[in-house]
Amino acid sequence: MSAIPFVNLKRQIDSIRGEIDAAIAGVIDSNAFINGPQVAAFENDFISAQGGFFGHGCANGTAALHLALELAGVGPGDEVIVPAHSFVATAEAVIHAGATPVFADIRPSDYTLDPDRLSPGPRTRAIMPVHIYGTAADVDGIRAVTDTYHLTLIEDAAQAHLATLDRRGLGTIGDFGCFSFYPGKNLGAFGDAGFVMTRDEDQAKRLRMLLDHGRISKYEHTQVGYNYRLDTLQAAILSAKLPHLAEWTRQRRTLATHYDGRLKQAGFKTIEPMKGANPCYHLYVVETSNRDEVMKHLSAKGVGHGVHYPVPLHLQPCFKELGYRKGDLPVTERISQRVLSLPMCGSTTLDEAEKAVEAFLEVAKP
Ligand SMILES: *Cc1c(COP(=O)(O)O)cnc(C)c1O
């Protein structure tokens, strides 16, 4: 059996290589490596594609979260509620802002923050749901909580390009939405890149300032900011890829439908999106009780796979000082032992997905 990669970036890039080469050459010829016109062009195109209002590109997804937290006024002494079932950056950004992450549990259906388990305290300033795997968290349910307690709602949409909830683009519903264009994300740069969306034009202006040294002109700095700019080269590459994202997302959804059919029939639990959610399947995740054995088998058969994420954030050594213990977040902890990600990207073929799921079903137990 030939090897089936977990993500086939090479195939995707090869298919549009001419367009990417032209975009890169354009930046080299213009010599505008910082704040070149390609940055604003990409910003406009990405805002339309996601159905947002205002926003700017930035250095990476972690910087996007950090910027949104600062714009929300989150700082020392504040707490931000985040899920523990996520990539480390979600909680790391809260620390960067000088605040403390408070971990909450997820719901077993779609692995997103459970609105019924949120209990804001006097120090809570924001809630940051993650649209994990590209599946919508219950933003409206969480909005009801942030409205009641006057908190900021920041969507970690790092995995949610073109995903929607009731036809609204994820990352465009809360006060802020943060995206990552890490190479392996659904829309990936050739390096690091990210984006902050906001519904508020004034916040977008502050965002632009904050990510570029707090400057209002070349040598006038009204506040201490960051060097969190999106490179012109990355913007040009992202613009070359963006017109293909809808087609790649359709392919991801086709693969997910195929996986769903095969796995549900065999009694496996997969992602169950809430009503109205149209995921973009950054990852396709299935639960299995004998994961180690399944991974060995998949490796032997050359089927790429991964675990997202094996160690919940509240049990990561880097957050040890926050004082969480095993047993604090039972759903998150159980899921982290059971989830397995199957091959999934815009250039994975249906035939590859079928071979992967066949190999999975040979040994996996629900
Ligand atoms: C990728 C990711 C980030 C961080 O993005 P970078 O661009 O790698 O900094 C944050 N949150 C989630 C959920 C992610 O998947």
Structure description:
The protein is of the alpha/beta class. It has two domains: 9-243, Type I PLP-dependent aspartate aminotransferase-like (Major domain) (Aspartate Aminotransferase, domain 2), CATH 3.40.640; 244-363, Alpha-Beta Complex (Aspartate Aminotransferase, domain 1), CATH 3.90.1150.10. 39% of the residues lie in helices and 14% in strands. The chain has eleven helices and 14 strands. Helix 5 links the parallel strand 2 and strand 3 (100-104). Helix 2 packs antiparallel against helix 8, helix 3 runs parallel beside helix 8 (232-265) and helix 9 (291-300) packs across helix 11. The two termini are 25 Å apart. The chain binds pyridoxal-5'-phosphate. Pyridoxal-5'-phosphate (PLP) is lined by residues 60-62, 86-87, 89-90, 130, 156, 158-159, 180, 182, 192, 194. Pyridoxal-5'-phosphate is lined by residues 60-62, 86-87, 89-90, 130, 156, 158-159, 180, 182, 192, 194.
